[in-house]
Automatic annotation (TrEMBL):
Protein name: ABC transporter ATP-binding protein
Family, per entry: Belongs to the ABC transporter superfamily.
Statement: the UniProt record of this protein carries the keyword Nuclease: no
InterPro entries, alphabetized: AAA+_ATPase, AB_hydrolase_fold, ABC_transporter-like_ATP-bd, ABC_transporter-like_CS, Galactose-bd-like_sf, P-loop_NTPase, Xaa-Pro-like_dom, Xaa-Pro_dipept_C
GO MF annotation, one: dipeptidyl-peptidase activity
Gene source species: Virgisporangium aurantiacum
Keywords assigned: ATP-binding, Hydrolase, Membrane, Nucleotide-binding, Transmembrane, Transmembrane helix, Transport
Pfam families with a match to the protein in the record: ABC_tran, Peptidase_S15, PepX_C
Record-annotated membrane-spanning stretches: 559-582
Record-linked PANTHER family: ABC TRANSPORTER, ATP-BINDING PROTEIN (PTHR43335)
PROSITE patterns linked to this entry: ABC_TRANSPORTER_1 (PS00211), ABC_TRANSPORTER_2 (PS50893)
Domain ABC transporter positions: 602-830
Amino acid sequence: MTFGVVTVLVLGLVGVAAWPERASYRTEQLRILVQTGPAGDQQVDLDATFYVPRSASRSSQVPAVLLAHGFGGTKDSVAADAKDLADLGYAVLTWTAQGFGRSTGEIHLNSPDWEVRDAQRLLDWLAARPEVRRDADGDPHVGVVGGSYGGALALMLAGLDNRVDAIVPMITWNDLSRAFLPEATGRGPEQGVFKKQWAGLFFGSGSGSDLSALLGGGGDGPPSPAGSNPQCGRFAADVCAAYLSVATSGRPTQQVIDLLRRSSPASVVDRVKAPTLLIQGTADSLFPLSEGDANARAIAATGTPVRVAWFNGGHDGGSGPRTDRDRLKFLTAQWLGHYLDGSGSAPSRSFTYSRITGLDATNRDLVASGYSVTDYPGVSAPGRSVQISGPPQSIANPPGGTPAAISTLPGGLSSFVGGTGLDVPGQFARYESQPFDTIVDVVGAPTVRLRAASPTGEAVLFVKLYAVGDNSSSLPGGQVAPIRLTGLPATLDGAQPVTVTLPAIVHRFEPGHRFAIVVSTSDQAYATPAEPAVYQVSVEGQVTLPTVDGAPIRNPNVVWWYALFALLALVALGVVAAVVVARMRARRSIRAVDAEHVDTPLVVRGLRKEYADGFVAVQSVSFTVHRGQVVGLLGPNGAGKTTSLRVLMGLTRPTAGEILVFGHRLVPGAPVLSRLGALVEGPGFLPHLTGLANLELFWKATGRPAEDARFEEAMDIAGLGTAIDRRVKTYSHGMKQRLAIAQAMLGLPELLVLDEPTDGLDPPQIAEMRQVLRRYATDGRAVLVSSHLLAEVEQTCTDVVVVHKGEVVASGLVADIVGDSPTVQLDVSDVDAATAVLDALGGVRSVVPDGASLVVDVNGTPRADVVAALVNAGVGVDRVVPRRRLEDAFLALVGGDTKASGER
C-alpha cells in the first residue's frame, strides 16, 4: 500500500471524527400488499423496510438482497444485518413474515403456497424499483439471505423461482419432519422420536408467547387475532392440528409428515441453481449439522456451486465468538460480492469449520480458530476406529418419562446445563474408551453399534458421546442421538446389532483424554414411552470417529496490518493530544465534590453499562450506602452485580450515570479510592512470596506510610496463624480468600467492597466472617458485600439491594424486604414435648419438627402466647424467628429467574 493511500485513509479517519456520521443508505418504511395463497387470490399486508444505498439511482442500479428473519421474529430482528449489507452497496428489503408482528395473515411454516409465494411477490416488487439492477423485465438481480426460518425460505424460494441469483441460508433445516422427529438408525420420521421441547417453543412463539429470543427471531411475539383459537394463535388451522396431534400422541400421522415435508427445502432443493453458501452451527439441537449436510449434498449433486461453513453457534449457542462472526461475515460478503455484485474472483468452495482454542483477554470472549479443507467431506468423513469397553447392562425406563436426563435446554436456556449433561442413575449404561496417546480432531458424526432387548419388544433410547478430560466431562454440542427400536427380543441373546449415527461434532481430544458412550432411556427434550420397563443394552467394541486434517485459516484482514502500522504512526500525535485533554478533564472531574454527600460512603445514581457489541450489563442501578451499614448486593447471575462492582472500583467506565464516594465523583485513579478497600474478581497474589510479604508489597504499592496499614488487625482478621509466613502457592483456595479479605481491610478503609467474601471458607470461618463484617461497620465505616449465599446475607447485612436484569427491583432493611410471616421457627429444648403442647394449643394450624427446631404455622395466634404455653409446660425456648427467609423474598422479587447466564 502506498503512502498516498495511507494518507487518504488517515484523512478519512479525521473526517469521520470531525463531522457527524451520515449513513450510506436511506430507508423507506413500507406496507406491501401481496396476492398469495394456493390460488393466488388471498391478500396479505406485509410490514417491510427498504434500505437503499445513497449512490443507487435509475442510472446507477445496484443488486438487491431479500433478507428474511428467524421464526418468531420481525423485520427489526435483522435490521443490523440489513444496514451492513446496505453499507456494502446492496438494496436490501426486509419484511415481517405473515402471521408475525404487524403483518397480517397466518403462519404456514414456509408453505410454497403462502410464505414462499409472498417472497415471490416481493421479487416482483423489487423488479419494479428503479434503483434495482435487473436481469430481464420482472427479474431483479437478487440474492436471498436468512437464518433458521429465513434460511429455509431462501432455499425454497431459490428452488421454486429461478430469478434468485445467490443465496446464503444459515442454521436451517432440510426436512422439518426429520428435524422434529429424528431417528439415528436411519429410519424415517415415521419412526422418529418427537422433539417435544423444541416443538413446544416453536409452536409457542407463533401462538402468542414471547419466546422468539430462544428461536433466534429477536422480535416480540404477535398477539393472536381476535376470536381465534387460543391453542392456535396465529398458526394456520392445519399447522395447529398437526402440532396438537403429535404433541398429544408423540407419534406423527402420514398427514403430519406430508405437511412438514411440504414446508421443507428437501422438497425442492434439488432444483436450486443459485450459488449457495450454507452456514450451520455446531451448537444446535434444533437443526443440527446433519440438516445442513443434507442440503449441501442435494445442491452439489445438481452441479450448482455450493460452499459449507460450520461455526461455534446455532440455536443453542447464539451467534458464536466474535472471531467466528467475523469469518462468516467475510465469507458472506465474498460470496455475494462475486455471485451477486460481480466483483472479486470466484470464492473457494472449500469446507471451513472452527473450534474454540482460547479466551480473548481483552474482552473475555471465546476465541474460535478457523480451519479449511479443500473438499467438503460431509458429516461422515473417514476416520479411525476406537475400542470401548463395558459389559451388557440393564437400564430402566421411568414411568411417564420422569425423572429424565438432561442433554441440553433449548436456545438461551442451554446455559443451565453448561454443556455437561445430566444422566439419571439407573437409567443409563456407560462405556468408555482408553485415553488417547495423540491429538485426535473429530469433525463429523461418530457411529457406534449396539444391541438392545425389551420385554415389550420396543424401546426408545438416547445415545450420546461424552468427552472426558482431566476431572471434567462435557457433551460436545449438547446433542443426543434418539433411536426407536422395534421387534426386540426379551433378552440380548437374540438381539441384532444396529448402527447409530451420533450427532456431528467438532472436538479436539488431547493426549490423555478419552470419551464415553452413554445409552439412556430418557431425555428431557424428547417424548418417551410412559410405561415403565427395564431394557438390556450392549455396545459393540468399536466406535468410528470421523477425522479431518484441516489447514488453519489466516485472518482475511492480515493484509491490512502494514496499513495499520502506518496509520498508527501518522495519528500518534493526535492520540497524545487526546490523552492530554482527557487527563485535564479527569482532573477537573476528580476535584469536583458533591457537598450534600461528602459524608456518605457511597452513592450510585443511574448507573448504566453497555458494551460495544450492544450487550447491556447494567440498565439502571441506583442505591446509597450509609455509615454503619452492611449492605448486601443480591441478584441472579447476569443481573449486573459484578459489573457494578467493577465500575465502582474504576476497573471499567460506565456508559451513563455516576458513582460518588464520600461526595467525590469516581473515575479511574481518583484519590478518594484510597478510602476504599475491595475484593473484586477474586484474590491475586504472587505465589512465590509469603502471605505477609504479599500484604506488605500491596501496601507499599499504595505509597502510604507502613504504620497506617494496621497489619496486626488485618492478620487477625485473616486468621491464618503461622501460615501467614508460608508461601502463597501452598495455600488452599479458602486460605487465599482469607488473605484477600485481610488485604482489602489494610488501613481499615472507611468503605469496604467485597465480592463473594465467603467463597472457599468452611462453615466456622463463614460464621466468623459474619461477626467481622458487623464489627467492621462500626466507628463510621460501611460495607458493601455481593454474595449468592442468601442465608449469609440475611444473617450478616443490615440492608439489601436486589438487582434483576440490570435494574434495582428492591432495596431497604433486610427485615423490611423479608416481611412478616405466619410461620415461625422455634428452637426448643425438647422437640417431642413441644410438639405435644402445641398440637393441643387452640389456633395453631400446623407443627412440623425440623431437627432441633419446630416450624409452626401460628395462624394468627400471638407468638407470645405460643412461647408462654411452651414455657409453662417446662419446655425451654432458645430462639423464635420468622420462617420466611431472604431467599423467599428474593425469589418473589426476581420471579424465580436465577438462570446462570454469563455475567459481565
